[in-house]
Amino acid sequence: MKYRTIGTDPQTRxxxxxxxxxxxxxxxxTDEKTSFAVLDRYVEAGGNFIDTSDNYAFWVDGGRGGxxxxxxxxxxxxxxxxxxxxxxxxxxxxPLAPGTSYVDxxxxxxxxxxxxxxxxxxxxxxxAKLDLLYAHIEDHEVPLQETVEGFAALVxxxxxxxLGVSNHAAWRVERARALAAAAxxxxxxxxxxxxxHLRPRSDVPESLFPDGSLGHAGPDLLSYLRAEPGLTLVxxxxxxxxxxxxxxxLPADFDHPxxxxxxxxxxxxxxxxxxxxxxxxLAWQIGGELPIVPLAGVSSVAQLExxxxxxxxxxxxxxxxxxxxxx
Length: 327
Ligand SMILES: NC(=O)c1ccc[n+]([C@@H]2O[C@H](COP(=O)([O-])OP(=O)(O)OC[C@H]3O[C@@H](n4cnc5c(N)ncnc54)[C@H](OP(=O)(O)O)[C@@H]3O)[C@@H](O)[C@H]2O)c1
Hints:
With 327 residues, the chain is an alpha/beta fold. It has a single domain (3-255, 277-316), classed as TIM Barrel, CATH 3.20.20.100. Helices cover 39% and strands 15% of the residues. The protein has helices spanning 32-44, 58-61, 67-79, 102-105, 111-125, 144-157, 170-182, 219-227, 258-273, 277-286, 301-309, 317-325; strands at 3-6, 14-17, 20-22, 49-51, 86-91, 130-135, 160-166, 190-194, 232-236, 292-297. It has an eight-stranded parallel beta barrel. Strands 1-2 form a two-stranded antiparallel ribbon. NADP nicotinamide-adenine-dinucleotide phosphate binds at residues 22-24, 51, 166-167, 192, 215, 236-242, 245, 278, 295-299, 303, 306-307. Residues 19-326 form the NADP-dependent oxidoreductase domain. InterPro entries: AKR_Detox_Biosynth, NAD(P)_OxRdtase_dom_sf, NADP_OxRdtase_dom.
């Protein structure tokens, strides 16, 4: 395994594996035995960066979520896992009532929700301190200042380490960080967005959240990342939910001329290296100039093995240039 640092403050920064593991479907779609086997193998391979959320996976059983955090709590207890494993969770997108969704009934990012939901997450995970806590989606009702102060209060109390943000417009991330900096408070240091080698069109409804915000790391977000060396991008759905091996899964917003060109480059590099396309995508993210940590989900140990092997796949400068240039 290889590692990189997330965060800049010596008090809160952490060394995490360059491949993160998504636990979104653990405890719901993926059964406990398989989930534990995947988690055990990931840790055995040196992985220490696991991702969940307080709302995973509410859509599976029409509840409010929490199964993933609860499963991770049981796994931590049964294995005697301590703070060597970084578990990141999120709040803000938990539906307020069963049978509803974050689309129109999300808990949001008020100071009260931040305090109470973080506490529930700590209970489910069995953790005194959340290593990394994200704002999951935008809240257009609560003033950013309140959200910034709400998160910072938990850091000050020692119940949260690092702060992160997901699916927010780049300008909102910048504004929240500026508010925090001006007040001498900790701000978001980890940015979590959908990011893969194939790129979606951003001008079709499929690529937008229902509120019109964009979950994908587009050019604006990437340029922000380039300008702020202390930030890390955690790239969710790097394997496009399995679409590289099952093209029928490719969402409609990837239907544009750039997709065949980038797929051709990926396949060429896969042939040259003897790796799979999935591995080339992950290696391209891990070894690039920008600090990107791919966050892949898996439903079997075999898929995890394939993804773990990408950590040792070194692409040449020429291969990387071809992958970057294809469009
Ligand atoms: N911040 C957010 O809003 C947000 C949104 C979505 C996800 N996430 C996080 O990101 C994590 C990963 O996202 P994701 O599950 O959407 O996307 P992903 O990692 O791109 O896709 C995971 C799926 O791809 C398939 N897969 C994985 N490895 C494979 C391999 N080696 N060969 C063939 N197929 C493979 C599996 O599908 P099958 O199981 O069908 O075989 C697996 O369930 C989640 O667990 C969650 O923690 C965050």
